[in-house]
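Priority: medium. Attachment 1 of 2:
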């Protein structure tokens, strides 16, 4: 079994045609569309241009929801309820992509914990997950470097309570104090939600400045990659900031896994 290596489109901002061109020319196996630097048009005629470009690539697409301006777990019901509807809209807009999914955050941008509400987070995520199920879109919660989702226990509780799937971010997990201080190994963190993992974010680690570090060798993350493959988790997003760094990471992985 080999991984399916997807390019993160964050490198090209809203230039979706460039994302397709670069992904195809560098031999990637998928596109992970990041909606922080870009949006999908609501107008059907404008949206069709994006659809046609992405679908004509021949590469499968999955999606990363906007997180800069949405927070399901916010204690203010105006913000949390708006986030629910906003994310449901994005699911509606991508539902025609075959076999697709969308990755969500709870606790983005290192939001202070006193601004969050657990009940709002569970209730909102559950509603979005059900809407995704009704529309054939996997809704995946991502583990972050801070907050509830950096803790294997509370992350698993959120996932179970909402019935969500998981996007497991290796770099966030390695930066979590629960892993970096030795309470859990990286693989133990993954095992806590293993049956629900649908996507892997692959890079070495997220540093204190919030930068995703490109691996120069696979040794620090190789046990996690092997574990993922052993469980049939093959959609790996190389979540770096330039097409060149993702291409180098792709070559590194392919040289190991043949």
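Attachment 2 of 2:
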């Amino acid at each position: 079994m080999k991984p399916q290596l997807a390019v993160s489109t964050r490198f090209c901002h809203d230039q979706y045609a460039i994302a397709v061109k670069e992904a195809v020319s560098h031999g990637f196996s998928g596109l992970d569309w990041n909606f922080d630097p870009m949006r999908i048009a609501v107008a059907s005629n404008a949206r069709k241009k994006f659809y046609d470009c992405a679908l004509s690539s021949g590469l499968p697409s999955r999606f990363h929801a906007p997180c800069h301006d949405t927070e399901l777990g916010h204690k203010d019901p105006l913000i949390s309820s708006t986030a629910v509807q906003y994310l449901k809209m994005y699911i509606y807009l991508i539902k025609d992509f075959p076999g697709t999914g969308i990755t969500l955050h709870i606790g983005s941008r290192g939001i202070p914990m006193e601004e969050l509400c657990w009940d709002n987070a569970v209730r909102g995520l559950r509603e979005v997950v059900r809407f995704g199920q009704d529309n054939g879109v996997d809704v995946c919660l991502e583990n972050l470097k801070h907050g509830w989702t950096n803790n294997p226990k509370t992350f698993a509780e959120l996932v179970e309570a909402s019935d969500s799937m998981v996007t497991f971010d290796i770099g966030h997990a390695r930066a979590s104090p629960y892993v970096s201080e030795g309470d859990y190994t990286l693989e133990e963190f993954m095992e806590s939600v293993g049956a629900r993992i649908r996507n892997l974010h692959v890079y070495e680690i997220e540093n204190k400045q919030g930068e995703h570090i490109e691996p120069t060798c696979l040794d620090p993350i190789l046990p996690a990659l092997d574990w993922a493959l052993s469980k049939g988790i093959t959609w790996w997003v190389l979540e770096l900031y330039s097409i060149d760094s993702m291409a180098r990471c792709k070559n590194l992985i392919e040289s190991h896994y043949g």
